[in-house]
Amino acid sequence: MSMPGRNRGFWRGKARNPLQKDRRGAVALEFAILSIPYFMMVLGVCEVGYDLFLQEATDLALQEGARQMEVGAAQASSSESNFVQNYVCNTTAGRMLICNNFHVKVYVLSSTETFDSATVSTGALPMSGHSLDLSAYDGANGKTAFCNAPGGSLIMVSAIYVGPTFLSGLLPYYFNELYNGAPVHAVLSQVGIASESFSASTSSGSAPTCS
Q1: Looking at the domain assignment, is residue 205 inside a domain?
Q2: What is the extent of the structural domain holding 30?
Q3: pLDDT tens digits along 46-105
Q4: What's the whole-model pTM score?
Q5: Is residue 7 part of a domain?
Q6: How many domains does the chain fold into?
Q7: Are 159 and 209 a contacting pair, CB within 8 Å?
C-alpha cells in the first residue's frame, strides 16, 4: 500500500519545481523574434503602395499636361516650372503631388521615328552610379530642357517625379536612389503625342521652339 503514496509524492514533488512548465516570457521572446520580419514586411508593402501611387499620379498628371501641349494651349509657357505649375499640377492627379518635385524634358522626334520611348530614351531613370542624374532634364551646358514644340510635330514628353522614401535606411538602393546626396524615391513617366497644326507662339515670354 506504500506505492501509491510514493507515486503521489513523486508527482507532487515535480509539480513544486519552480522551473517546471514555467513559460513566463516565452511569448515576449517569440514576438521579439517575429516582429522584425513582420514590421519590415508592413513597411515594404507601404513602400510598394507608395511607389504605385506615385507612378499612377505622375502618369495621369503628365498625360493631361501633354494634352495641352498637343493642342497648342501650352504655348504660353515660358519655362518648365510654368508648364508644370499651370498644366501638370493643375490637374486632379497633379494636385496630390508637389510641383517642385517634377523635372520635365521635351523631345521632338523625326517623321521616321516612332513613339517607342526606346528611340529617344532607355525608358529607365537616368543614373550615374547610385545617384539620379537629372542634368538632361534641368538643362546642362547652356541647353534648355523645356521648349515649345511646333504644330504638326511628333513629341515625347518625359517627366521624373522625385519624392521621399521610407526604407532608405533599411534597404538602401532597393527602394530609393540618391539625389543631391539624399535618398529619394523617383518615378519616370513618358507620353508620346502628335501635336495638332498650330503656329508656335512668338511672344517674348514663350519658351524656345524645340529644334
Answers
A1: no
A2: 24-194
A3: 888 888 999 999 999 999 988 888 888 887 777 788 888 888 998 888 889 998 899 988
A4: 0.72
A5: no
A6: 1
A7: no
